[in-house]
Design brief:
This protein is of the alpha+beta class. Helices cover 21% and strands 45% of the residues. It has 3 domains: 2-50; 63-163, SH3 type barrels (Roll), CATH 2.30.30; 167-329, Porin. Mean pLDDT is 79; it is low at 11-59 and 144-150.
Length: 330
């Protein structure tokens, strides 16, 4: 009897694991059937979503624009007073943010990515829809005329660029008024008089030579010095013209002010007409070549600058000049 019980137990332990495994398989199959094939489709769908590239999740790269003004400034922040980090040329094709960033004084900016990986901000008035430089060149070769330009915006952009530079690196032109202590050699008189002179003045880089800061003055005086009256039977007349070209050397320079020295050649032409006591008409004409040494100071207020300068001129005789000038952007 014991042997029969032992054989039955062995048979039960051998059959149960097989039956248990078959039961699990059947339950799983029935369960999957009741849930449907959607459960099987979940796995590849989840994997596809997990493997979706990041580029599909990125936002739109922005809008294509063309730079409309030359040397357009890219700022570090949406603020005209922030640092300049790059300059773009007119005709450059760029991509800008769809968002417009507001700045002080009502200025508006786009955000752009630079080739070095940094981000900056460019004023909305400096860009617009249009053709790139390459496309414009091709259109010009076909005889097409460029579209109309907004001159007011271009002028504001140019003014903003100029004001972002130290004033000594702007190019200026304007008028001056001064007093010259003029001397010459005339027999029988002390030839020395103070003349009220005026003229035209150009200052800045690339004025006469490419690169250095220079200052050119064209000085005029109509009439004759008063000492000719003592030797003339009639009122004397004449003209004085002088010019100099000075190389400027700043020794104190700020954003809107500067102190500087100037040194360069000086050229003079004078022709005065008078009638001598004997009744003879005299018209002495003289050329002079010398050197001019100047010291001056300048101050800028917006697009206008004022300069006060003193000069010492070395010729066969010496002349002293003090002059005040008012200039604007060239």
């Amino acid at each position: 009897m014991r042997d029969v019980v032992r054989r039955a137990a062995r048979l039960l332990f051998a059959v149960c694991p097989v039956a248990f495994g078959a039961g699990v398989l059947c339950v799983g199959t029935l369960g999957m059937g009741s849930l449907g094939m959607e459960s099987l489709d979940f796995v590849p769908t989840a994997l596809a979503q997990a493997r979706r590239p990041d580029s599909a999740k990125k936002e739109s790269p922005g809008r294509a624009m063309i730079v409309k003004t030359d040397s357009a400034i890219v700022f570090s922040r949406p603020d005209m007073d922030s640092d300049s980090i790059a300059y773009l040329s007119a005709g450059d094709a760029i991509r800008v943010s769809r968002r417009i960033y507001g700045g002080p004084a009502g200025h508006r900016f786009y955000r752009i990515a630079l080739p070095n990986g940094k981000f900056g901000y460019i004023a909305t008035i400096d860009v617009g829809a249009g053709r790139s430089a390459k496309a414009s060149k091709a259109a010009k070769s076909r005889g097409e005329k460029p579209g109309p330009k907004n001159l007011e915006r271009l002028e504001r952009a140019r003014l903003r660029r100029e004001l972002s530079k130290p004033m000594m690196f702007n190019t200026w032109f304007g008028l001056f008024l001064g007093q010259m202590r003029f001397k010459e050699k005339v027999p029988g008189v002390k030839a020395e008089d103070d003349l009220l002179v005026y003229g035209f003045k150009v200052t800045g880089p690339d004025v006469l030579l490419s690169g250095p800061l220079m200052d050119m003055n064209f000085t005029l005086y109509f009439g004759a010095p008063r000492y000719y009256r003592s030797i003339s039977r009639v009122k004397p007349s004449g003209v004085l013209f002088a010019t100099d070209a000075l190389l400027l050397m700043p020794f104190g320079m700020g954003q809107d002010s500067a102190l500087y020295l100037g040194l360069g050649p000086w050229l003079k032409y004078s022709s005065f007409k008078y009638v001598s006591p004997s009744g003879a008409l005299a018209t002495p004409s003289k050329f002079g070549l010398g050197a001019s040494l100047a010291v001056g100071g300048a101050y800028r207020v917006g697009p206008v600058s004022a300069r006060l300068e003193g000069k010492y001129i070395f010729e066969r005789v010496t002349h002293q000049v003090i002059q005040l000038s008012v200039q604007t952007f060239y």
